[in-house]
Amino acid sequence: MGTRLRVSIAASDAEAGAAAIEAAFAEVRRLEAVLSSWQDDSELGRLNVAEPGEPVRASAELLGLLAEVRSWAQRSDGAFEPAVGALIDAWDLRGSGRIPGEPDLQRALAASGRHAFVLDMEAGTVTRRVTGGWMTAGGFGKGAALRAAAGALRAQGVESALLDFGGQLQALGSPADGTAWRVGVAHPLRRREEAVAIRLADVSAATSATSERFIEIDGERYGHILDPRTGLPVRAWGSVTVVAEDAMVADLLSTALFVIGPEAGMMWAETFEDIGVLFLVEDDGPIDSFWNRAMEPWLEH
Question: Less Cβ crowding at N or C end of the chain, within 10 Å?
Answer without folding.
Answer: C
